[in-house]
Amino acid sequence: MIVVTPEITLDEDELIETFIRASGPGGQNVNKVSSAVQLRFDVRRSRNLPDMVAVRLMKLAGSRVTQDGVLILTAQRFREQERNRADARARLTALIVAAAVAPIKRRASKPTAGSQERRLSGKTVRAKVKATRGRINADD
Question: What domains can you pick out in the chain, each with its CATH number?
Answer without folding.
Answer: 2-100 (3.30.160.20)
